[in-house]
Amino acid sequence: MPSAPSKLYSDDVSLLVVTLDTNPFFWSTFSVPFSDFLSQVLAFLNSILLLSQLNQLVVIATGCNSCGYVYDSASSKNHVSPTASMPALYSNLLHNLEQFVARDQKLSKPDHDTRGIVPASLLSGSLSMSLCYIQRAFRSGSMHPQPRILCLQGSADGPEQYVAIMNAIFSAQRSTVPIDSCYIGSNNSAFLQQASYITGGIYYKPPQLDGLFQYLSTVFATDLHSRAFLRLPKSVGVDFRASCFCHKQTIDMGYVCSVCLSIFCERHDKCSTCGSVFGQAQKDVTSANSKKRKA
Ligand SMILES: [Zn+2]
Ligand SMILES: [Zn+2]
């Protein structure tokens, strides 16, 4: 990974983009209610803003049909008015989140719950939105805080989003933006493990959720500069399995196109991504060579 370009901002000022999983299908089946989770997350978000006056915070809600910005501390309407009874972070974020959840629910297809499968959240969408926001900060000039992304995710991976998520991960790696992941679901998330591993972020699965605030504040509140001096959780094992491009299923072994590196679970004569012909290709090359020789 190339070193980050030098910043005129002091190195402990952060731009933290948080993606918040609001998937109602996950939260309705999970042991901890969403309100308990949110109250701990809000305290953590508040602590980020308290750490430095220059810290910037953006929250993106990840629904199962859409994603949306629910809070941006740089926005002028989120500045605290002295007469307000509640901090702008809480009142505006909760108001926008409520509107987002209602809007996301309206987009649900009626056949979703009949199959009894929890649909995945649109993590690929919220990662892309985070990166777009960070790119805007990069282009605003040389004075910008150090960006990082934190994914607060609970629902399982959606293998159909594999390509989009990997593209987002490589884009983050190119821009030296670490993706931190706090995964609270039952099994580990292979997508988030890979995201944090490739981008140099932290993947952590809290063993207990009643102390979530403590995990968030000790692991994920640390800015990129201070991380060099701390012993933060190391990734124990990363699930590197990929999804096939044809059926979007997670596979252990598969066929890889030698031209564009697309992955398939079964043998094809032609790559559906780049159009390369596999079986025929060898024969074409030899016949072309023999024609050349004759000429
Ligand atoms: Zn397949
Ligand atoms: Zn190909």
Automatic annotation (TrEMBL):
Keywords: DNA damage, DNA repair, Metal-binding, Nucleus, Transcription, Transcription regulation, Zinc, Zinc-finger. Its main location: nucleus. GO terms for molecular function: zinc ion binding. One of its GO terms (cellular component) is transcription factor TFIIH core complex. It is found in: Nucleus. PANTHER family: GENERAL TRANSCRIPTION FACTOR IIH SUBUNIT 3 (PTHR12831:SF0), TRANSCRIPTION INITIATION FACTOR IIH TFIIH , POLYPEPTIDE 3-RELATED (PTHR12831). This is General transcription and DNA repair factor IIH subunit TFB4. It comes from Lupinus albus.
